[in-house]
Design goal:
about 200 residues; alpha+beta; 6-stranded mixed β-sheet; 3-stranded antiparallel β-sheet; 4 helices; globular
Length: about 200
């Protein structure tokens, strides 16, 4: 289930700016198990991930940690990265950025400071992960976007950011190795990324 506020309101009226939209996001009182992001001027509330996603995120982080650019930090902690030009604010499942991005007392971090993002799709957000986020991350100049399509069980890496999004990408089914381009320049083994067999 995804809830989308088409025309969010503040004090009874439509927000006048992206900053006001971020203020609304800060004030949301969400039920446990839900998170909120901003997609092109709309607040989107979606459920948190399934349990096994945590294992996949850990495997990605363990493999990329040794390839991190100097003074960069890799994390799965929930942080909000803002992209004012696209009126978007995302909390990527995995992200890497230079340490200076985190040297702030604000909860709104600079999306252009990211060096890597990874999103694990869910039925609720898969469409946006495959379209809007590819464009927004690419336009912001994020060097590498890793999309783990948990429904199709395949991994796609995007690189060569441009004003139109990403110019290059490569897709492999789960179980294969995928090259993660510069500034990481390493191989990601996607073995074990599939959903556990229910029994």
């Amino acid at each position: 289930m995804t809830l989308m506020t088409e025309q969010p309101t503040i004090s009874g009226g439509k927000p006048d700016s992206f900053e006001e939209l971020l203020d609304i996001l800060d004030e949301l009182d969400l039920r446990d198990g839900f998170k909120a992001e901003i997609y092109r001027g709309k607040i989107v509330v979606s459920p948190w991930s399934k349990g096994y996603y945590a294992l996949v995120m850990r495997r990605v982080c363990e493999q990329l940690q040794s390839c991190l650019p100097q003074d960069h930090h890799l994390s799965v902690a929930p942080f909000l990265f803002v992209f004012p030009g696209d009126e978007s604010a995302y909390g990527p499942d995995i992200h890497a950025a230079h340490e200076r991005v985190f040297e702030t007392d604000s909860n709104r971090l600079d999306g252009e400071g990211l060096s890597f993002v990874a999103e694990l799709t869910s039925p609720a957000t898969r469409g946006d992960d495959l379209t809007d986020k590819v464009e927004v991350y690419g336009r912001a100049g994020v060097p590498v976007y890793l999309l783990l399509d948990m429904q199709k069980e395949q991994a796609t890496v995007f690189w060569t950011p441009s004003p139109k999004g990403y110019e290059s990408h490569c897709t492999q089914p789960f179980g294969e190795k995928l090259h993660i381009p510069a500034p990481f320049d390493c191989s990601l083994d996607t073995t074990g990324f599939q959903a556990p067999v229910s029994g």
